[in-house]
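#lab-general

N.A. 3:47 PM
ok so I finally got the sequence cleaned up, no stray characters, all 85 residues accounted for. can someone with queue access submit it? mine expired

B.Y. 3:52 PM
send it over

N.A. 3:53 PM
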Amino acid sequence: MSANEVQTKLKAFINTYVELVGDDDDDSKYLNKPYYLEQLKQLKELEETVLKINCDHLYEFDQGLYRQLEDYPCDIIPIFDLVVT
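B.Y. 4:20 PM
back already:
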């Protein structure tokens, strides 16, 4: 996977990932707003600079991208920083 492909997928993850609320035993539903865009808004309001990414979310979104992060963290994390910035 090229750096451009990784960047495109990470942008899609940040812009579109919607968190599932509930568990398998009840009527689970997705929240309406993209989770990480909301997190970025909160960080801006609080003037903080660290966005915490739940890797389970990344795995749920794209297993190949998760494996890239797992196998090549030194390459993927700087791309993630670029995308979030």
